[in-house]
Amino acid sequence: MRHSDTGADRVVTLGRNGSSLHAGVELGGTKCVCTLAHGSGAIVEQKIVPTRQPEETLPAILAILQAWYREHRFAALGVASFGPLEFDPASSRYGQILATTKAGWAGTDVRGRLSAPFDVPIGFDTDVNGAALAEMAWGCAQGISDFAYVTVGTGVGVGLIVHGLPTRGIGHSELGHIRVPRLANDDQPSVCRFHDDCVEGLASGSALALRLGERRAGDVARDDPIWEPVVHTLAALCHAIVCATGPHRIAIGGGVLVGQPHLLARIEAGLTASLNGYMALPAGAAYVVAPALGDKAGPLGAIALAAQAPPRARQ
User: Fold this and answer.
1) pLDDT value at position 18?
2) How far apart are alpha carbons 44 and 1 in whole angstroms?
3) How distant is the alpha carbon of residue 131 from its chain centre?
4) pLDDT tens digit string along 255-272?
5) Torsion of Cα atoms, 132 then 134 then 137 then 139, to 10°
6) Quick check: 130 and 305 in contact, CB under 8 A?
7) How far apart are CA 210 and CA 161, in angstroms?
8) How far apart are CA 255 and CA 7, in angstroms?
9) Per-residue pLDDT averaged across 124-134, rounded?
């Protein structure tokens, strides 16, 4: 893999080689990762574009995609974006980012602008749904069709897959914004400007930074009380997910959990206690796990979307 932002040359193989080349774009809050890979998950090249304003970021991404298309003629394109997103093809806002907290991006037609130059199938979904599909294809959720991927970083997102497909309805999963009961005596203000007591407002990386004050997470002991409201809130999120769709496994990643992997077992214990015998989790292995793909889940999510993209309608 040629990783142009570092200058390092390395190869990452996550599946069988030899399948069609796909291009993928993961749009994140701080960076966008452009990936060229085989449909089997073998990464050929990757480039990173900082997430600034749309009129600076999207042209930079398009320049990368156009160069790859000229050289390789990739067979499909996947776009996995932060949201919320409009997925109704009948809507005038189809393909747009909606009421995001990312300044300047609300109303941006990320699907249309990134796909317009290419006569190939387009896969389009949230970044967390893409990551969930990547874990199902090449990671910790292989062989199961009901799965939840939770990322706890600057915000909290949930990729929710039911019977092999991302959930749909009036919108996509926004479980990071479900309102949960606070831990007793937890009176820290929520960092979410929409909700006083949602998961993102209480347990995201931004919420943790507020709880830490001048301290750094890496310097805080495992038994420090600061982790208790984070564990409580994420266990409540998992309780809601289990009761709503009963996934066979929940993976939790993102910067907060990467830095504090001991939280996974505590979240599962909190989930089990919260369910209180009403529902039984699968026996024999951990139910709340780390993503097997690590930080590759997001970029490979865009490739998974490209691999599953429907044929492009002819005009």
Assistant:
1) 37
2) 5
3) 5
4) 899 989 999 999 999 999
5) -80
6) yes
7) 32
8) 24
9) 96
